[in-house]
Every structure is written in C-alpha cells, then in structure tokens.
Design goal:
4 helices, two-stranded antiparallel sheet, mainly alpha
Amino acid sequence: MKWNGAKAKAAVREGGADGIEAAGRELFEATQQAVPEATGALKRSGKLNVDGLHAEITYGEGLSDSRAAFVHEKLEIRHPNGSAKYLENPTTAAAPRFAAIIAAAIRRKL
C-alpha cells in the first residue's frame, strides 16, 4: 500500500473548506431568519464571507450607526420580527451540526 499523504492533506483541506462554506451558508440563513426587520437595513447589511477554512458573518457594515450591536445585545427590546442575539442564538443552536457538515464534506473528497 502506498501512502499519498500530500493528496490526503489536499483532500482534507478542500473538503474542510467546502464544509466550512456549507456550514456558513446554513448559519447565515438562520441568522437572516432571526435578525429583526424594523426597516430591513440591518438584514440587508448581513454578509457571509468565506475564505478557505475561515467563514465570517457580519451585520451592520455600511450602516451609519451602531444598530447591529445595539439590537443584538438589548434583550429587553421586543421585535415583531426577529430577536436580539440574532447571531448568538442561531450559532449555539447550529453548532452541534457543524462538525457533521464539515466531516461529510471531507469524506466526499477522500
């Protein structure tokens, strides 16, 4: 049996990147469902950026105020659509699935 370490490492990196992107997309959709929509500006400001093994979801960039952090942290404010902790709650709920999503993507590359 011949070990193809370089090919195996490349497959793990590629699969990991695919899995991170899939998990990021799932989480971004969940945050889009949870973000309050008073004017829609905060929801529209949401972005998912994926670069290899790194994914980042942001809200509030380009807005003229700090509403993203304010809305996220103020638990006492009731929103007709969405909720405070629109990043934290979906992340906590989805985190157990992320390892399985990433592992499945790696298996597909091997």
